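User: I'll paste a sequence; please echo it back and then give the predicted structure.

Assistant: Echoing your sequence first, then the prediction.
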Amino acid sequence: MTDRLPHETSSLHALAERAVKEPKLLTKAEVTELADFVLKGGEHASEQEREIAKKARHNPEGMEKSGIAALARQILERK
């Protein structure tokens, strides 16, 4: 059971790396996953990043490339 966490974390980092390179190719669920992770670790996110994550939760399909990339960078910086 403890083996799942590193896999989930590495999957999230792989998703974040892909989001930085090709943000508009992410699915609605993937954008939501990035936003959820940023919101759950709120103490590490800036106010602007939390606002972007809230917008992504509300309308993942309407997110701009820069917003998706910002969420992804926030995740990658937490390593």
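Residues 13 and 46 are 19 Å apart (CA to CA). The chain has one domain: 8-77.
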